[in-house]
């Protein structure tokens, strides 16, 4: 019986050692679980930040694409307008109540003859028209046009 009692004591001791080992293992597992949960929470937070950043980037990309398309259309219109022949735009119609303002453009003055010593000749009779003599292209021999 003492032998059985000693065997039971050894078995109880082994069970206590195993129980202590299980407690330590459970504590390790619990701390690993807690660390994993914290890491998962950080990862979820980062995922949310990434999703928000992706949405913001998509909005900005759409905005930039729209601006780029508008710029390309405007550039196309400018190029098309530049390649058209110059046409004077039609003047806006003025209502009859408003006075029409005409710009004052000075008329060119007649040129004087090059030879100062030349006197005016009397006018010829209108019955026979005469051809006019061509004027010299330069007034003085040293003048160049």
Explain the overall architecture.
This protein has 145 residues and is mainly alpha-helical. 57% of the residues lie in helices and 0% in strands. It contains 1 helix and no strands. The chain is rod-shaped. 0% of the residues are buried. The mean pLDDT is 81.
The number of helical elements comes to 1
Q: Return the structural class.
A: mainly alpha
Distance between the termini: 146 Å
Low-confidence stretches: none
Helix content: 55-70%
Q: What is the average per-residue confidence, as pLDDT, rounded to a whole number?
A: 81
- Described by the principal axes of the CA atoms, the overall outline is rod-shaped
Beta-strand level of the residues, as a percent range? Answer: under 5%
Number of strands: 0
Helix/strand order, N-terminal first: H
What about the largest sheet?
none
The whole-angstrom Rg is 54 Å
Summarize the structure in short.
The protein is mainly alpha-helical. The chain has one helix and no strands.
Summarize the SSE layout with pairings.
Elements: H1 2-83
Search tags:
1 helix, single chain, 145 residues, 57% helix, mainly alpha, rod-shaped
């Amino acid at each position: 019986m003492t032998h059985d009692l000693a065997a039971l004591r050894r078995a109880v001791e082994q069970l206590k050692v195993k129980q202590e080992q299980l407690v330590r293992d459970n504590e390790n597992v619990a701390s690993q679980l807690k660390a994993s949960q914290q890491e998962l929470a950080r990862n979820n937070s980062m995922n949310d930040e990434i999703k928000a950043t992706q949405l913001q980037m998509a909005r900005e990309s759409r905005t930039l694409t729209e601006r780029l398309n508008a710029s390309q259309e405007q550039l196309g219109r400018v190029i098309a307008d530049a390649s058209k022949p110059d046409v004077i735009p039609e003047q806006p119609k003025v209502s009859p109540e408003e006075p029409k303002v005409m710009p004052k453009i000075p008329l060119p003055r007649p040129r004087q003859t090059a030879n100062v010593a030349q006197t005016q000749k009397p006018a010829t009779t209108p019955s026979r028209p005469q051809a006019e003599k061509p004027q010299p292209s330069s007034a003085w021999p040293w003048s160049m046009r």
